[in-house]
Design brief:
The protein contains 7 helices and 12 strands. By secondary structure, the chain is of the alpha/beta class. The strands form 2 sheets. It has a 7-stranded parallel β-sheet with strand order 3-2-1-4-5-6-12, sandwiched between helices. It has a 5-stranded mixed β-sheet with strand order 8-9-7-10-11, covered by helices on one side. Helix 1 crosses helix 6, helix 2 (70-80) packs parallel to helix 3 and helix 4 (116-132) runs parallel beside helix 5 (154-165).
Length: 258
């Protein structure tokens, strides 16, 4: 079996190292290079601070770096025609627009969360919002480790978008309430962020209605759930020939059709 050649962007970070280890444990993947602003070589593949310095062969990029690195990463992906799995969150609207434009030339993958469980949760949240209707208020609480720099998390926004997709009217996202001196509006989704300790990731979606509350909750107990999802997405994207912006729904559909 010919192994899929993977570039890990952000290879020296915590998630990059988990992806590296899990790729080495699989028979179908191999990390051929890494990109990182910290160019220390921690593993048996070369590390480049400038993606354009890499001139070898690669089938796909897995990006767990940071939002600021997206532009040089897209420059490289477009120049070399290499698909990219973007796992990083916290991008600006302008960066997301550039990603969409790049996906018109090279297959791209993006998800607010790489966990299979979270993507299932998003589908359930969308259905719940449609069934419960405007009589239920939606609040999202997300908790992460103290080192996470973006808030709210990309996953919280993904879940908010899922709830909004099930509603009759587009809601407003409210990120903090200390400066708001009036009762909660009818068409809102509240999003709260907690940062502390070593929490890997917890997301809670609350549907609060008249005299009853329904809660959906997902807890990630290790970073491996995200790394495994990213590698599955990389294996999927490496076989895609048609440009486009793909999501975890595409990966799940491909797996279920086997």
């Amino acid at each position: 079996m010919q192994r899929i050649q993977v570039i890990v962007s952000g290879c020296n970070g915590r998630m990059g190292q988990v992806v590296t280890r899990l790729c080495a444990e699989r028979a179908d993947t191999q990390v051929c290079a890494g990109f990182d602003l910290n160019c220390i070589q921690k593993n048996d593949y070369p590390v480049f601070t400038d993606p354009m310095s890499f001139d070898g062969h690669a089938d796909v990029i897995v990006d767990f770096s940071n939002a600021a690195f997206l532009d040089p990463l897209l420059d490289f992906a477009l120049a070399r025609g290499i698909p990219a799995v973007i796992c990083t969150t916290g991008h600006s609207p302008e960066q997301l627009q550039r990603l969409r434009e790049a996906s018109g030339r090279v297959p791209m993958f993006r998800s607010g969360n790489m966990s299979l469980g979270i993507n299932l949760l998003a589908n359930l949240v969308k259905k719940a919002a449609a069934v419960l209707g405007p009589g239920f208020d939606v609040e999202i609480v997300e908790r992460h480790h103290r080192m996470k720099v973006d808030a709210p998390s990309g996953t919280a926004l993904m879940l908010a978008d899922a709830a909004a997709a099930g509603m009759d009217e587009p809601p407003a996202y409210v990120y903090e309430r200390q400066s708001v001196r009036h009762p909660r509006g009818d068409h809102e989704i509240g999003i709260s962020s907690v940062r502390g300790g070593t929490i890997v990731g917890e997301h809670e979606v609350i549907f609060a209605g008249p005299d009853e509350v329904i809660e959906f909750r997902h807890t990630a107990q290790s970073r491996e759930v995200f790394a495994n999802g990213a590698i599955a997405a990389a294996a999927f994207l490496a076989g895609v020939k048609t440009p486009g912006l793909y999501t975890m729904d595409d990966v799940l559909s491909e797996v279920l059709s086997r």
